Amino acid sequence: MPAAHADGTDEGTVDHDREAATEHDQPAHRLHLSSILHRHLRARGAYHDAETLHHGALTTARAAGHKAAELDALTCLGQIHQSQGRYEQAAAHHRETLQLARATGHQTAELGALTGLGMVHRMQGRHEQATDHYQHALQLATVTGHQAAELDALTGTFNRRTIDLWLSRSFSEAHRRDQLLSVLFVDIDHFKSINDTHGHAAGDTVLKQVSDVLRRELQATDLLGRYGGEEFVIVLPGRNGDDARQLGERIRAAIELVRLDVEGKAIRLTVSVGVATRLPMETEPAAAVARADQALYAAKRGGRNRVNVAPAVFS
Prior knowledge:
Layout: H1 11-23, H2 27-44, H3 47-64, H4 67-83, H5 87-104, H6 107-123, H7 127-144, H8 160-177, E1 181-188, H9 191-198, H10 200-217, E2 223-228, E3 231-237, H11 241-256, E4 259-262, E5 265-268, E6 271-277, H12 286-301, E7 307-309
């Protein structure tokens, strides 16, 4: 019986698609089958086969003048290199994708290339370039109504999936290099009451305003994501607990100064902040995230509008 893979396909299906993709002469049919086969190969973790296939698809697309297929092949090659840690090659493919997308008016591909370049530059430590690409992606998403896969559509911060990815990468890197790392959870106080009293549009305005304040307080190396609802998470590579606490206090004070006027009604904002620092043995973020979350709720129970630092172990 053929072996099954994560996407529900089996060896027989993969082999059949591989033969079909190479035997058919029609470029469009080959490209379509190549796209299907790529999903099979990615599900199997067969990145070398997928890369070889897409180089062939790229050559076929260019010879046939299929711009959409060329964009697809370039995008997939960039993703493959990025997932394998080959950042220079990934950046080269993302740049090619960006150039072709702009030339052909393909805004979805342009958005993907911009966010891809942002991710690659982050991993390379080129934080200013990463921020520049993310800002362009956010501007394009705002103008076109398209949503970048890595960004929260409302606030322009990283979404939950992406910030979780960066948390894992940051903890692994900090452990490997024996570096400091801290995490902040920031939660908007009485957010449900704001929504109930002033409406969801006012709540959206509050989320945007808070995310803007958070961005202004962060350094280029810091990472900001919306964790869900009214909660944000900040990842601070190279920062100790005291630095993180001081940042939390600056954020708390800056938010407290915000005054929003919604249809003639003033909205006063405050936030509660939980702080946790990576312990020397921690290679994964789960324990530190849990401590930061517990510290946040301790701040809530303590009266809100305050910063609470988690101990190494909660009693």
